[in-house]
Amino acid sequence: MHSDYNSPGYSHWFYFKVSNTRSDIRYTFNLSNFYKPDSLYNQGMKPLMYSTKKAKMDGVGWARIGEDVCYYQNSVKRKAMTGFLYTLSFSFELPYDNDDVYFCYFYPYTYRDSKEHLERICVDSKKIRKTELCKSLAENSLDLIIITNFESSELDIAQREAVIITGRVHPGETCASFAVEGMLDFLVSDHEEAKQLRNKYVFKIIPILNPDGVVIGNYRCSLSGQDLNRQWIGATSRLFPEIYYTKQMFKKTLESRKIFMYIDVHGHSRKRNAFMYG
After folding, report:
1. Residue 204 and residue 162 in contact, taking contact as beta carbons nearer than 8 Å
2. Global pTM?
3. CA distance 160 to 98
């Protein structure tokens, strides 16, 4: 696997296609150049596969597959960092001949998926509005979603505290996007709890904090080759506009209201289930 673009050696995300398959062969893939010393693959997780023919004939999309799945240290030394690299090995059989089959680290969630989802839900300006916080280095939009009960009086809205949510600062953690999508869907729904939340808080949500990394297929870094989650202290608008303008949004928010909570949604390659750091 290749490292993140411009990065010193972050390599963990994979998403590739295999064509001209045969159904009567047992395949074994050895994917090398992983940089993390352990993985959920050693705790029972399996790679994801999408068969084009199976999706068309049986309606089955992405599915966990593979036997003899193991993740282990190999003999290749890391060039930019100390230690060795790691290999993921797994075996499988395919259901159809001459199929186009995709393999992925985790369920894909693209920049376009986010854009299309926002188009579907940003239809009622009485409870949700969308603006562009800034442009990334590659001129991709950093969307900012604001959710509250906009039908309330200006005084009522001004007295509400803010809840800020960001996701996908690490582009390979696609589960974060699914979580943020679920939050957005709930907050704009007609559930009584959602109505109460809109009446009490102003939600400011950035679904994809690292759009360039998502677009180019990085695992952890932005187009600059740096981990944006390590740039909060000294971010500049020139190198890290996503973090710089997010911080400006925080400061601007504090000028008019308190921030009740900030939630930064991630995925984890070695821990199970859902958990929080606070």
Report:
1. yes
2. 0.94
3. 58
| Residue 223 near residue 136, CB atoms below 8 Å | yes
Nearest to 123 by CA among 188, 50, 200: 188
User: What is the DSSP secondary structure assignment for residue 249, as one 8-state letter?
Assistant: H
Mean pLDDT, to the nearest integer, of 229-236?
A: 96
User: Which residue bears the tokens 């187009």?
Assistant: 223
Cβ(83)–Cβ(75) under 8 Å?
Answer: no
Distance CA 169, CA 55 (A): 31
For residue range 259-270, what is the model confidence (pLDDT) as tens digits? 999 999 999 999
Burial class (CB in 10 A: 0-12, 13-18, 19+), 38: middle
For 89-107, how does the pLDDT look when each residue is reduced to its tens digit (9 = 90+)?
999 999 899 999 999 999 9
Distance CA 229, CA 169 (A): 6
Which residue from 162, 175, 172 is spatially nearest to 263, judged by alpha carbons? 162
